[in-house]
Each structure stands twice: as structure tokens, then as C-alpha cells.
Amino acid sequence: MPFGNYASLTRAAEVQELIQGEIDRVNRKFARVEQIKKFFLLDTQLSAEDEELTPTMKLKRELVQTKYASQIEAMYR
Fold first, then answer.
1. N or C, where is the chain less crowded by C-beta within 10 Å?
2. CA atoms of 32 and 36, how far apart (whole Å)
3. Whole-model pTM over 0.90
4. What is residue 55's predicted lDDT score, i.e. its pLDDT?
5. What is the DSSP string of 18-71?
6. How far is residue 36's CA from residue 72's CA, in Å, rounded to a whole number?
7. Could you say which residues of the chain have pLDDT below 50?
């Protein structure tokens, strides 16, 4: 699939459909309360340079939760 950059790839309908299909497939294994209902693809990759990851590539959850609060909140509306 041709794409210009990471952001355009995450917005491509084909990518969204592919991920939704995989989520649907995996959700069949879980009870309704355990299933993924909505998802959001970030248009940038998380990185240690942006301090979203540690040098050993572990997620800094509190920072990411704060930085992407509006996107997270939108999934719960």
C-alpha cells in the first residue's frame, strides 16, 4: 500500500479496516465487558525522544495518558 508518511498510513481506510477486522476476530474470544469497543491510531510513533518511552522502550503511561487525554476521552463518549 503506498503512503507518504506514518500519519497518512494510520489514516488510510484500508489500515483502519485491517485493524478493526483483527480486533473483531480477537474480541470473539472475550466476554462483552472485556472487548475492545473503539480504538484510535496515533499519527505519530511513540518515541524516547518525545519522552513517551523510556530508553529501554517501556511506555511512560502517565505521560501518554496526559498527552493523549482528548483522544482517550473521545473513545469513552
1. C
2. 9
3. no
4. 92
5. HHHHHHHHHHTTS-GGGS-------SS---TTTTSB-TT--B-HHHHHHHTHHH
6. 13
7. none
**One-letter amino acid for residue 47 of the chain:** S
CA angle 37, 77, 70 (to 5 degrees): 100
Instruction: Give the domain ranges of the chain.
Output: 1-41, 46-77
Q: Decide if 42 contacts 11 (C-beta within 8 A).
A: no
For residue 52, count other CB atoms closer than 10 A to its CB: 18
Let me know: does 26 contact 58? Beta carbons within 8 Å. Answer: no
- Contact between residue 52 and residue 59 where contact means Cβ atoms under 8 Å apart: yes
**Residue located via cell numbers 493523549:** 68
In our burial notation (b when 16+ CB lie closer than 10 A, e otherwise), range 18-40 reads eeeeeeeeeeeeeeeeeeeeeee
